[in-house]
Amino acid sequence: GGIGRFSIMDYVRGAYYVLGLGFGMLAVYFLMRSQFSVKRNYDLRQRFSVIMTLLGLLCAFIIASGYYKRFHNIPTSYALGFSRNNISTLLMFVMPFPLYLAKRKPVAAFLTVLVLAFLALTRSRGGFLFGCIEFAVCAVFWIFSGKTKKGRKIRLYVCLGALGIGVCVMLPALIKWILPRFDVDVKNETRYKMIWEAVDKFFKRPISGYGLLDTDILYETERKKGTLTWYHMMPAQIIGGMGLIGVVCYGYQLYNRAKLVFTNADSWGFVLGLSYLGVLLMSMVNPGEFCPLPFELLAVLLFILQERRLQTARPLYRDKLRRGV
Q1: Most buried of 21, 148, 226, 272 (most Cβ within 10 A)?
Q2: Rounded Cα–Cα distance for residues 234 and 305 (Å)
Q3: For residues 81 and 68, what is the distance between their CA atoms, to the nearest angstrom?
Q4: In this structure, are residues 155 and 164 in contact, taking their beta carbons and an 8 Å threshold?
Q5: Segments of the chain scoring below 70 in pLDDT
Q6: How far, in Å, are 113, 166, 168 from residue 162 at the CA level?
Q7: Spatial CA neighbour of 138 closest among 103, 95, 76
Q8: What does the alpha-carbon distance between residue 48 and residue 202 come to, in Å, rounded to a whole number?
Q9: How far is residue 77 CA from its own chain's centroid?
Q10: Residue 318 has what pLDDT?
Q11: Calculated CA dihedral for residues 118, 122, 128, 134, nearest 10 degrees
């Protein structure tokens, strides 16, 4: 986006994002994809689910450590001792993977509930709101993944019972804990103002937008060193930064990603899809997929695994040589 607005030095200074969200990530895709062509003596799906679940437990430890430091007045870089939005995004990546492990060990499904609990502890508005949505979809997936009609009914009753207990026992405390975070004057909220900035810039440069390196955005006054001047919202970032070109490209990408999830749908494909749904939802109110590492890298990895699941990805040039094509 922003064709003709930036100098060569602007692109050099912003190389991490220019490459990390463009051709650099494409190169990483081919590099990672080539590694999955090698046969391994373990269940890749099970192993990856374990790794992602361990990532979730690490996030839980960081959150607990943050509260410990806060309780003991140990100085940290963040108010809660951790970056609430970044750690929430990682937890939303993780949320569905314990459900895949639950195919062998049903008790693992409890870890998905634990992920939601730690999302609430982050006090991230986007993490809690969209985490609840992702959790609801995960619950539906867990119910319908039961092998028998009786099993699905039991899971439904378990979910309804847990919901009832949660409402009666946890809701009052949860409202007191998280509700103040939503008590904002919307019209004076930075994201609300940036929506209109993005719309205004879209109408001024509708084809290519103002570019990802654009710094004439309200967030520039709060931007941390080394980061983009984000809109903190994917739709605004696309229309303001990339115009119609971005709308078409990201729309096409989203269509193809959804197509991968629902083609020959199975439990593994849905788990990967639910994981991506988490970061996609979080990207509606945070940088999300516009952070090359780790979020966009993880998103790309999820769809490499989707391609491997389907075995329909076009062969790499190296693969063609092996086959004599």
Answers
A1: 272
A2: 24
A3: 9
A4: no
A5: 312-325
A6: 10, 6, 10
A7: 95
A8: 40
A9: 23
A10: 42
A11: -50
What six digits make up the tokens of 62? 């960081």
- The letter for the amino acid at 66 is G
pLDDT of 178 reads 78
The interaxial angle of helices 44-71 and 84-94, nearest 10 deg, is 150
User: Which of 139, 214, 129, 134 has the alpha carbon at shortest distance from 179?
Assistant: 129
The distance from CA 151 to its chain's CA centroid, rounded to whole angstroms, is 31
What would the two tokens of residue 183 be?
A: 């008590």
**Tell me: the pLDDT tens digits for 231-255?**
999 999 999 999 999 999 999 999 9
Give me Rg for the CA atoms of the chain.
21
DSSP 315: P
CA atoms of 218 and 236, how far apart (whole Å): 13
For residues 158, 89, 310, 325, the Cα torsion angle rounded to the nearest 10 degrees is -170
Taking alpha carbons only, the member of 197, 202, 239, 199 closest to residue 217 is: 197
Query: Tokens representing 318?
Result: 């190296």
Which two tokens mark 89? 């995004």
200: tokens are: 């205004």
**Furthest-apart CA atoms within the chain: distance in Å:** 66
Structure confidence at residue 183 (pLDDT) = 78
Copy the structure tokens of residue 52. Answer: 């992602």
Quote the pLDDT of residue 324: 47
Instruction: List alpha helices for the chain, DSSP H.
Output: 8-13, 15-20, 23-35, 44-71, 84-94, 97-101, 110-122, 125-144, 149-165, 171-178, 190-204, 234-262, 267-282, 297-310, 317-323
Tokens representing 303 are 């769809």
Place of tokens 């190296």: 318
What CA–CA distances, in Å, run from 130 to 79, 83, 93, 135, 284? 22, 17, 12, 8, 9
